Amino acid sequence: MGIKNWKWFAVLVAVIFAGGLFFLGKPAMKEVSAVQAPGLPADSMQVIQKRGLSPDDVFGALSTYVPTGKYDEYYMFASGGHGGQVLVIGLPSMRLLRVIAVFEPESWQGYGFGVKENPLVNKTETIPGQKPKDLSWADTHHPGLSETDGKYDGQFLFIGDKANGRLAVIDLRDFETKQIVDNPVVNNDHGAAFVTPNTEYVVESTQFSVPLGGKYAPISDYQKEYRGLATFWKFDRAKGRIDGEKSFALELPPYWQDLADAGKGPSDGFVFINSFNTEMATGGIEEGNPPFEAGVSQRDMDYLHVINWKKAEEVVQQGKFKVVNGMKVIPLDVSAAEGLLYFIPEPKSPHGVDITPSGKHIVIGGKLDPHVTIYAIDLIQQAIEKKDYEGTDPYGIPILRFDAVKKAQVELGLGPLHTQFDNHGYAYTSLFLESAVARWTLGDDKFQAPEKPWTLVSKIPVSYNVGHIAVAQGDTVEPDGNYLVALNKWSVDRFPNIGPLLPQNLQLIDIAQTGDHMKLLYDMPIGMAEPHYAQIVRADKIKAWEVYPEVGWNAETQSKSNTAATESKVVRSGNNVEIFMTALRSHFDPEHIKVKQGDHVTLHITNMERTRDATHGFNISNYNIAASMEPGETVDIDFIADKPGVFPYYCLEFCSALHLEMMGYLMVEPAE
Ligand code: CUK
Ligand code: CUA
């Protein structure tokens, strides 16, 4: 700790002490500040007094304030829910750093507005013959950072679209979306995106069973025709793309598969997916049937799915699959015969499946049961080896005996959902119904002596209805601890009234100390849709570019563009007009573009700047075109000049004192 930090520590102690006295109505602030806080300006004490801050408030403020020009310790990547994007937030300040355009048009980033270098416009086939869906929204649930040896490596981020069964790849060199793949077999997911420990595969499992391959089948044929699916998308790290042809999927019974997590260490090679609706209820409240909410909650136990993906990979290599819309799918009977899939009973409609950092244990949230249930991978492997089954399900999949593989159950409270881990041997579980986060000890998992029990330590209330929680690096083999963020669904009374549609509330909690110390530090309103899950990574792991590596960079291929030009040029051939344009403070070149109505116009615009933050934007009035050219970037735009008239184009970023002069005219001469 440097001398500067010591000073701050002294100030912190003094302020908290002074604040405490203030709260107890003890001596006047002035005296306290003079005696207890040398170096603390008297006006700081006045601020505390004037704003009526409690000692906890002061602790929260000092813990989260990041001074101007200083950086946050962590990046948090949060999904954007049915806003379809990804949020990048700095911790501990909880400042929003960026909204990454993923599945939806976003004009600041020029994403989806005529620029060809993005997956919304330039749709590619992941699997031959597959037609990408034409959609303009998504429901993003689970961000998944790429991993090497079970640790975040800071290279890529994946995110699933629950509503439409898609997966996106974001490159963290420029924080931009590079690829969107459509699952050709199913149209929804939930257990996405979860990566295997070396990002060999990105897992995407379904939520709601449907007839595979987009077929139609009446609901009366549910058990026969409807299926779940676990897709293993092969990731080609060198290309930064998912390789559809090397991907495969496992057909699953028509239960509702829920969250997924990949094993690591001793459980590497397995993927775990919990499920509900093993009742195979089909709803139909309007026909006098029990509604889904009742029908899917009949049985006391549902099934944790245990998938041996390394073995599945071999089975695919042996050709034991069928092809559905171009995707290799392992049928259920093959999975049963080859030992690729096992079920483990899990208490009643669970939610959340999380592997401990050691990889030895699997934690399931009870949702309708006050416990978390912990399974041990060594017990699971023994049971599989001994064929210690209680029977099979209607599809012939072996069911392991609960008592043979269960390690422990810990009663935590009402509605346990998701679990994260820290560096002290604690687990943290969100309690949805109780609006709290529970801290509990991980028994004989990695960090503690065998005699240490699996037990509840403390709880902290949150506001309100917490879904996921995120601990710094808390789902990797090397959790950092320090901070936990509760992603609360409801904010109710936490923020000023903005009408009936309320923001989510992300609450930052200090978990650096052990025992029953957990302190709420900060409330962050999220004024866009519902972040479901977030991952928090140490800032030093992210090595993003400051400007693109060279002038004339194609951000789609992450290489030099073959349409880059450092001098302007117009090439005409019949109805085709190709314009090589440069952008440099404070002009575009050319400033006049003359075409005829009906011409096919192609623009290649190169931002010549090498200065950090010298971004130029480009738009054409009434043509629905908006681009962002970050320093060094070349963008390609093409359109038919079907509207005659004179259309200004101008720079969208206030780039210089003469930014307003950075414009030109597109002159479209009417056709005869
Ligand atoms: S979640 Cu997606 S329905 Cu608990 Cu990951 Cu909320
Ligand atoms: Cu370039 Cu404003």
What can you tell me about this protein's structure?
This protein has 672 residues and is mainly beta. The chain folds into three domains: 3-64, no CATH class; 74-103 and 138-282 and 294-541, Methylamine Dehydrogenase, Chain H (7 Propeller), CATH 2.130.10; 553-669, Cupredoxins -  blue copper proteins (Immunoglobulin-like), CATH 2.60.40. The protein has ten helices and 45 strands. The strands form eleven sheets. Strands 8, 9, 10, 11, 12, 16 and 17 form a seven-stranded mixed beta sheet that branches. Strands 36, 37, 38, 40 and 43 form a five-stranded mixed beta sheet that branches. Strand 25 and strand 26 (426-431) form a beta hairpin. The longest helix is centred in the first third of the chain and has 21 residues, at 3-23. The chain is globular and about 80 Å long. Mean pLDDT is 93; it is low at 1-10 and 17-35. Bound molecules: [4Cu:2S] cluster (CUK) and dinuclear copper ion (CUA).
Q: What brief labels describe this structure?
A:
672 residues; mainly beta; Methylamine Dehydrogenase, Chain H; Immunoglobulin-like; 3 domains; seven-stranded mixed β-sheet; five-stranded mixed β-sheet; 45 strands; globular; disordered N terminus; binds [4Cu:2S] cluster; binds dinuclear copper ion
Small ligands present: [4Cu:2S] cluster, dinuclear copper ion
Q: Give me the Rg, rounded.
A: 28 Å
User: What's the assembly state of these chains?
Assistant: single chain
Residues in helices, as a percent range? 10-25%
- CATH homology superfamily of the largest domain: YVTN repeat-like/Quinoprotein amine dehydrogenase
Major sheet size, sense and barrel closure: 7 strands, mixed
Assign the CATH class of the largest domain. Answer: Mainly Beta
Number of helices, counting only DSSP H or I runs of 4 residues or more? 10
Question: What is the overall pLDDT average?
Answer: 93
| Uncertain residue ranges | 1-10, 17-35
From the 3D coordinates, which CATH architecture of the largest domain would you assign? 7 Propeller
What proportion of the residues form beta strands (DSSP E)?
Answer: 35-45%
Overall 3D shape: globular
Class by helix and strand content?
Answer: mainly beta
CATH topology of the largest domain, by name, is: Methylamine Dehydrogenase, Chain H
Annotation, overall tally of beta strands: 45
- Count of individual domains: 3
